[in-house]
Amino acid sequence: MASGQGNGGMSLSMKFIRLLIILLNLTFVIIGGLFLAIGIFVMKDPKMQQLRPLLSPDITVKYSQSLSTIEVSAIILIVIGGILLAIGFLGCCGAVKGFRFLHLLYAIIIGGIILAEIAFVVVYIVYQNRFKTEFANKLRESIVKYYVGPSINNSTSVNPISLSWDIVQFNLQCCGAVNKSDYANTTSWNRTNPYQPTTNLTVPFTCCPLSATKNWNGIPANMSEANTCATTGVNVYSQGCYDRLIDLLFSYKNYVIIGGAIIGAVEIFAFLFAILLFCRKDHYDSL
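-> structure tokens emitted (287 positions)
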């Protein structure tokens, strides 16, 4: 028996590499499970459900049935989780059973995923400013076309986009897409003050400070404390909701970067080790 070889005819170094592949694929299984859980959580989270109408690609359509950016992201997470689970299972089978074709198939899949991830990052970097500009414009247009004000004492029949704006403004403490001036040209809001019908509102009640506890399932039934602010425009939230939404969406940016770096490193090592095992044909004769 050659030096450095175990009883099965495979060198200790190759056995160690096979063990590493098994560990790497167990990591894929764990990460895949986490992605599945996060994707399902995002789909069911009340906060994300309220943001759905504002993050739809057809936001300018009053009752859009298109999947929102959040739902698409959740589906992507679920799909990625499923793929990682499948890759982990495939890689473990290839390493344990020693089937060469599984190592080759595994390496091809991992290589394709790495290339797709690189392409995604490049596209994001190139088009991120364009996306932000178009997103802000769509948010402003949705206010102009579809904001009708909160339904207080059933005074107004609200639509999903209008309700989402009130919930977002109330919880994120912001006003309009860019600022309060976005409400200057609304076409569906009659501005009548439900607490003082003889006066008109300058901005929605939800653009003003309210003492009620934040709640992503709805807005306070009584917002009379914001009456002066809403009619005069004094003490209105100065920051627009676009910036707050971006802050919310990017609040997990560091976690995404760290997670992406870990997954990328695992993918690269798994790819290299799978190629190495596939190329060492002589060690498979005795497996």
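The chain has a mean pLDDT of 78.
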